[in-house]
Amino acid sequence: xxxxxxxxxxxxxxxxxxxxxxxxxxxxxxxxxxxxxxxxxxxxxxxxxxxxxxxxxxxxxxxxxxxxxxxxxxxxxxxxxxxxxxxxxxxxxxxxxxxxxxxxxxxxxxxxxxxxxxxxxxxxxxxxxxxxxxxxxxxxxxxxxxxxxxxxxxxxxxxxxxxxxxxx
Amino acid sequence: xxxxxxxxxxxxxxxxxxxxxxxxxxxxxxxxxxxxxxxxxxxxxxxxxxxxxxxxxxxxxxxxxxxxxxxxxxxxxxxxxxxxxxxxxxxxxxxxxxxxxxxxxxxxxxxxxxxxxxxxxxxxxxxxxxxxxxxxxxxxxxxxxxxxxxxxxxxxxxxxxxxxxxxxxxxxxxxxxxxxxxxxxxxxxxxxxxxxxxxxxxxxxxxxxxxxxxxxxxxxxxxxxxxxxxxxxxxxxxxxxxxxxxxxxxxxxxxxxxxxxxxxxxxxxxxxxxxxxxxxxxxx
Lengths: 168, 284
Prior knowledge:
The complex is a heterodimer of chains A (168) and B (284).
Chain A: H1 2-26, E1 28-32, H2 43-66, H3 78-89, E2 95-111, E3 118-132, E4 135-152, E5 157-165
Parallel strand pairs in A: 1-2
Antiparallel strand pairs in A: 2-3, 3-4, 4-5
Chain B: H1 2-10, E1 21-23, E2 27-29, E3 34-39, E4 43-50, E5 53-60, E6 64-67, E7 76-84, E8 86-95, E9 99-107, E10 110-112, E11 119-127, E12 138-145, E13 148-156, E14 162-166, E15 173-181, E16 184-193, E17 197-198, E18 202-207, E19 210-215, E20 219-220, E21 231-238, E22 241-248, E23 255-258, E24 264-270, E25 273-274, E26 278-280
Parallel strand pairs in B: 2-8, 10-16
Antiparallel strand pairs in B: 1-3, 3-6, 4-5, 4-7, 7-8, 9-11, 11-14, 12-13, 12-15, 15-16, 17-20, 18-19, 19-23, 21-22, 21-24, 24-25, 24-26
């Protein structure tokens, strides 16, 4: 009996980690930093930004789909974290937003002289789905332009500002 | 929409087939209110999604729905979905209001004097709701040491950012760095400290315990006293071999007591700077 419970828990954890990985892998992120200045973006920094921006969108999608604001903690700070938490916590019960088929084309437009802030332009493509209970009330492919500010923390880049604009 | 009504009328279902539609504003400034107008008749559900909001509300078709300023504080993309049987949607943007504060990053907080491109500052204007103001605005950067102006440089924000980089001043002490935009300003302080020592000079004398050697007051090349704690290295070479003493500068002077009985040659260095060499004869 104990073995069965152990196996069930193990399977659940495995499934959960696969789900998380699958969600993360489903978010496609490309970064072009050729035009960034005044500081040059090093390749290691580039990889870190791509990794952490992908994680941020995975976390955000999870938070809005499962109404779980804690998902936001590791990737967002400042204003971005504040409005995302507000969105999740004030979301009408029963509503869920899903960001699916995500692709993000990032262009670094400013990298601070001391490397303590980077501004990115993200041309994001995704399907935004709105569920009201089990009913799908909105399902549209979207192209949204985001101005993004990221700042480094001790071990990763955090999204500080995520602001959609009509165009760059 | 007309065709939809015609279809509804043609199949005799006009009573239940509601041709609802909605109109959203083209653009809204953060913190303003907005009106979403609906057409049609009957009841419907309005969903509003955007930064900080994910809400469902029952509405009567044909009426206007007012969105409060509180709900439109965050700049970004908002989607309104109106459902009554079928769903219609429209989106609009909220843009940042006028600048109300400046985020100002200045580096470093402590810098040696006369260093090329050593001080930099980045400013980002935000509105009262903490949205980044992307419309270009003029920023004036100033750097002052007391009443002496070290820098006054106008800049214009591009994509919500303006920045500068400059050489540090010549005198040690506190430097005020200001960024101003109309009546808004942000101020940071940078501590300028002396650069590497310049013209290190030492003198020494025999004592019963050996040789007492000390520097003259240590200055950088611009005449600023070098910060206490900076290490000065004395090296003595005599008949007994070589000995080295690292001594911190205290009150502008570094001192060391070296044990050497015979004729000794003493040199001094701090960082990459060498000083004069001293020769002291053997103890009588």
